[in-house]
């Protein structure tokens, strides 16, 4: 299990922490609402829970945290009972032992009934009665809350692993318990959102104990930037490099953390107070290119996991093809050269594992940095015939520098120009953006112009022609208002032919009146979320 070290401060996540605090208050008031935190591996779910628990200061609420990754029933028993008694002892100012027997001794005078039940479960465990042990443990919180009048928070980290206990209908069983234990607040986490949602919908959709699903994502742009600043302590870093790092890591706290740590180490060695390209580039080389670099090892283990076993080679080839920008099944087929069913089977598994995402007919790797590593490190290691590590290293460095340069050039371009670049990529594909389906045509001609509003302000417009029709787009980084919509309406009335489609594109949210008006006119609205999806699909840096 990963946990935050002493020199790594916890950062952000206030929205989830606030939610958890509210749910604890609700629990004390007799209203219990369970939560499931779902999100990719290493995105920060356990860290969030640990931080929440470390700061939980409620004498009437006893938490039990269980990490279920690769754990067996005996562990589950000792951890479950041990944590319960330990946290109860803490609240009661009783001696704090690490040993279950000692904990039992010091608490049995106060909670005799709970201790009796624990002893019985232990007997079941030693006799190998797995089902009785498991059901006994799930009943224990109820016994405890009845005896003490306290509430419990039960946390199953990576809860899908309960399946490994080989107990028939384990989730239905858990569901029944959850329904009746109104004084237990359940928090589940899972790194496999697809599988977890299925379990939650099919087996844990309960009458009085439904789970509120919270998706935990990587840090957003602003949080990433602040996180970098915090991680670099007293070292300065320019806005552009900070933005680059955010985009490069996709805001993943783990990667930001590891790269920033390395940057800090290097800046100490080279006695530098400001971070420039050479240090960043060296830090990336050390962590991502070097075989024993932390991120490199991390990715290697992931690939090893995904690509061992029968048909592993196909998975490797799929990962490589996706990293090289081949997104569609047909493209994958022609580059890998195996049967279609073989590809779709593997793609489906990768989808289930959350390694890739599908949008329309496009498949892409979810983790940006992993994609970078597959493309620039892993692929080369596999395919290079010449054993020349220095050459590979130099090449990696050059490619990384080029990548930073491209980012810098893009980020210097203004907003309309970035949108035009994106429009040039469309080719009659349909995509899902924020739950809506959009068919995006191949544009033959794209021009930008400025319209002057009554107040004399300029509004950036893009006109894009397909064969036989025209699209009008308004691009504005800031808030779009009603006057902007009126302006584009007037422009479309002036046009020889009514535009087929008007799209309002803005990085800020659009004000409510303007939104209603746009919807009334059947305009499309694209905000940050839609834009970022498109930029990811077409391999472009996000607009910061
Ligand atoms: N909020 C955060 N603040 C600082 N670092 C974080 C945060 N969230 C995650 N991390 C970093 O990412 C690593 C992996 O997070 P973890 O909680 O283990 O992921 P998950 O449980 O989702 O698989 C942590 O060990 C830590 O280094
Ligand atoms: Mg975890």
TrEMBL record:
Membrane-spanning residues: none
Protein name stated in the entry: Archaeal ATPase, fused to C-terminal DUF234 domain
């Amino acid at each position: 299990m990963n946990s935050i070290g002493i020199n790594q401060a916890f950062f952000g996540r206030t929205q989830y922490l606030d939610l958890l605090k509210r749910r604890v208050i609700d629990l004390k008031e007799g209203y219990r609402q369970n939560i499931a935190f779902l999100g990719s591996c290493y995105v920060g779910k356990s860290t969030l829970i640990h931080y929440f628990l470390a700061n939980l200061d409620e004498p009437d609420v006893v938490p039990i945290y269980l990490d279920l990754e690769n754990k067996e029933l005996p562990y589950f028993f000792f951890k479950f009972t041990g944590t319960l008694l330990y946290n109860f002892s803490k609240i009661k100012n009783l001696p704090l032992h690490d040993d279950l027997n000692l904990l039992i001794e010091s608490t049995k005078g106060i909670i005799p009934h709970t201790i009796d039940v624990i002893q019985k479960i232990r007997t079941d465990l030693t006799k190998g009665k797995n089902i009785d042990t498991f059901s006994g443990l799930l009943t224990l919180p109820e016994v405890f809350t009845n005896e003490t009048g306290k509430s419990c928070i039960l946390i199953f980290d990576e809860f899908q692993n309960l399946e490994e206990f080989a107990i028939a209908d384990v989730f239905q069983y858990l569901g029944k318990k959850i329904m009746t234990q109104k004084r237990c607040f359940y928090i589940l986490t899972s790194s496999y959102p697809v599988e977890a949602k299925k379990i939650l919908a099919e087996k844990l959709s309960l009458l009085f104990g439904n789970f509120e699903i919270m998706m935990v994502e990587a840090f957003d742009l602003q949080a990433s930037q602040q996180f970098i600043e915090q991680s670099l302590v007293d070292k300065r870093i320019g806005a552009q490099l900070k933005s680059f790092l955010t985009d490069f890591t996709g805001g993943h706290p783990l990667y930001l953390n590891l790269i920033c740590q390395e940057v800090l180490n290097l800046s100490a060695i080279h006695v530098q107070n400001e971070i420039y390209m050479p240090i960043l580039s060296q830090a990336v080389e050390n962590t991502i290119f070097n075989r024993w670099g932390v991120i490199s090892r991390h990715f290697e283990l992931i690939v090893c996991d995904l690509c061992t076993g029968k048909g592993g080679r196909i998975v490797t080839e799929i990962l490589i093809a996706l990293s090289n920008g081949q997104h569609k099944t047909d493209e994958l087929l022609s580059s890998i050269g195996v049967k279609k069913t073989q590809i779709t089977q593997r793609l489906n598994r990768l989808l289930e594992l959350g390694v890739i995402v599908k949008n329309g007919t496009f498949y892409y790797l979810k983790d940006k940095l992993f994609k970078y590593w597959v493309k620039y490190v892993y692929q080369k290691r596999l395919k290079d015939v010449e054993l020349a590590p220095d050459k590979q290293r130099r090449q990696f460095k050059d490619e990384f520098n080029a990548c930073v340069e491209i980012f810098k050039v893009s980020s210097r371009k203004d907003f309309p120009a970035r949108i035009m670049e994106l429009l040039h990529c469309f080719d009659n594909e349909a995509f899902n953006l924020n739950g809506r389906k959009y068919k995006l045509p191949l544009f033959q001609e794209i021009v930008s112009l400025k319209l002057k509003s009554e107040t004399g302000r300029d509004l950036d417009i893009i006109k894009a022609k397909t064969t036989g029709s025209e699209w009008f787009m308004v691009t504005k980084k800031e808030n779009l208002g009603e006057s902007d919509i009126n302006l584009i309406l007037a422009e479309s009335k002036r046009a020889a032919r009514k535009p087929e489609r008007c799209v309002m594109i803005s990085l800020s949210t659009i004000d409510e009146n303007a939104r209603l008006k746009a919807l009334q006119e059947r305009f499309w609205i694209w905000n940050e979320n839609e834009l970022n999806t498109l930029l990811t699909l077409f391999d472009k840096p996000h607009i910061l």
